[in-house]
Amino acid sequence: MAAPLWPKYDVNLGTLLRTCDAVGACLAVPRRPWIGEALARGNTLRHRSCVHWTSRPIDWLGAQRAGGSAVVGVELADEAVRLGDLPAARKRTVMVLGNESEGIPADALELLDTVVEIPMIGSGHSLNVAVAGSLVLYKLAGLL
């Protein structure tokens, strides 16, 4: 499951929804007025997609972990696993994404089982959320 729980840009959600469909995953999003339309606009497949809505992202994430899901965050951190070394998911997994500006909030970082980073050679510090999430989803699905 992809969980961009603190989105800033609506275009990222449509791209992630398409990637979720490609790898057989669901998308978890917070309830915000603009998100429903962003998903509808971005769903180029034109069929109903698997979307979970949450009102309180931190509580939802804690419940997923308590329910036995592995929680993987895409973030820059000292203890992060490089994307190439990330194994395919062997059980239900929630991939958490922050946003390009602030990343994953500190109270959510405490709920992560694994942190994965995507190595970069260029001068940027991060990729677009949709691109980063898509790369990690494919790796977790065992398709890369």
UniProtKB/TrEMBL annotation:
One of its GO terms (biological process) is RNA processing. Residues 8-138 form the tRNA/rRNA methyltransferase SpoU type domain. Gene3D superfamilies: 3.40.1280.10. InterPro entries: Alpha/beta_knot_MTases (IPR029028), rRNA_Methyltransferase (IPR051259), SpoU_MeTrfase (IPR001537), tRNA_m1G_MTases_N (IPR029026). The keyword Cell membrane does not apply. It comes from the Bacteria. Pfam families: SpoU_methylase. PANTHER family: RRNA METHYLTRANSFERASE 3 (PTHR43191), RRNA METHYLTRANSFERASE 3, MITOCHONDRIAL (PTHR43191:SF2). This is RNA methyltransferase.
